[in-house]
Design brief:
Order of helices and strands: EEEEEHEEHEEEEEEEEEEEEEHEEEH
Structural class: mainly beta
Helix content: under 10%
Strand content: over 45%
Number of helices: 4
Strand order of the largest sheet: 18-19-20-23-22-21
Largest sheet: 6 strands, antiparallel, barrel
CATH class of the largest domain: Mainly Beta
Radius of gyration: 22 Å
Number of domains: 2
Distance between the termini: 30 Å
CATH topology of the largest domain: Thrombin, subunit H
Length: 337
């Protein structure tokens, strides 16, 4: 079995229109086909999980010795703290404030574990060094990373990106309460080699909001572009994978700066009804892209795949034993989201 690597969350990146000039791909479209703006621009995602997810347990040094209230109470890595004493916890700041105000009184902590809601009793203790009350958890309330925008709907302004799920510590699709998508700039690449996936490195441009993310599923991240982002200079194409076949194709991806470029690939295999959304096996044939990145690298997930002028899918995975090869998802799987 080939080893694979998901392609989200490499470095930090940058958005841009494809080619920098308006261009239309002319195709005959059926009435049920959708003409979209083709992506290829890199994007920086900051995704809030809606709660404080436990990513580790720690011991606290107190006047009476070392202890871990969280461990004693039964908290585990992967748990999401949703409420304490009936008060909603949306961030690390919320958690710290409630624990500090307890002054060591036992707290009722509501958590989500594997889709089930549980209530645990946790008694904070005062840490000697900081003189603050703590329960001994390492938590996060958001995840940041980079990927590639696949398309923007010309009518609604809704975008689709990545082409695969974003997973948490337990390898389950991450929940999303709020998400901001930023324009970014690619500043470097760690080339992919056999046995190790490469990655894009870059920088969030926090003053340039691309849009808001409102959904995560196994087909990627979806949301709406901001009013400030103008996609009209981006290339347009009909999204239709009906005639996808083995043979020559192209992808659009940003591996330097903010401008997406076109690269040649070959579709080796088409499997339309693959239940894991591994609908295409592709091989990078573009010598320039291979020279710059070694092939497919982290941060390129979502790079649109076009064949015969149609947008047919997006890059999702790289084969770890051959970075010039990877999987792609059928565009129709993304469009229904």
């Amino acid at each position: 079995m080939r080893k694979l690597s998901f392609l989200i969350f490499g470095a930090i990146l940058s958005f841009g229109c494809i080619g920098g000039a308006k261009k239309e791909i002319s195709v005959s479209a059926a009435t049920d086909e959708r003409t979209v703006y083709v992506g290829g621009m890199s994007a920086g995602f900051t995704l809030k999980t809606g709660g404080a997810q436990v990513i580790g347990l720690s011991e606290i040094v107190t006047e009476k010795g070392t202890c871990s209230p969280a461990l004693t109470s039964g908290l585990r890595t992967g748990d999401k703290i949703q409420k304490i004493q009936g008060i909603r916890v949306d961030s690390i700041t919320d958690l710290n404030e409630i624990v500090e105000k307890s002054k060591g009184v036992e707290l009722n902590v509501e958590i989500c574990r594997g889709g089930e809601t549980l209530n645990l009793a946790v008694t904070p203790v005062k840490e000697t060094v900081t003189n603050k009350y703590k329960i001994g958890v390492l938590v996060r309330d958001s995840v940041s990373g980079i990927g590639t925008v696949t398309y923007i709907d010309k009518t609604t302004g809704r975008f689709g990106a990545l082409g695969h799920a974003v997973t948490d510590q337990t390898n389950k699709t991450m929940s999303l309460s709020d998400g901001t998508v930023y324009t970014c700039s690619i500043v470097g690449v760690s080339k992919g080699v056999r046995g190790k996936a490469g990655e894009l490195r870059g920088m969030f441009l926090n003053d340039k909001c691309f849009g808001k993310a409102e959904k995560i599923c196994n087909c990627g991240i979806f949301g709406y572009i901001s009013e400030d982002f103008q996609p009209t200079e981006c290339m347009s194409a009909v999204a239709n994978s009906q005639a996808a076949k083995p043979g020559a194709a192209v992808i659009y991806s940003t591996v330097s700066g903010v401008e997406a470029k076109r690269y040649n690939v070959e579709i080796v295999k088409v499997e339309k009804y693959n239940k894991e959304n591994k609908n295409y096996v592709l091989k990078i044939t573009d010598e320039q892209l291979i020279s710059e990145t070694g092939g497919i690298v982290q941060g390129m997930s979502g790079s649109p795949i076009l064949q015969d002028g149609y947008l047919i899918g997006a890059v999702t995975h790289v084969f770890l034993n051959d970075p010039t090869r990877g999987y792609g998802i059928d565009i129709n799987q993304m469009l229904i989201e």
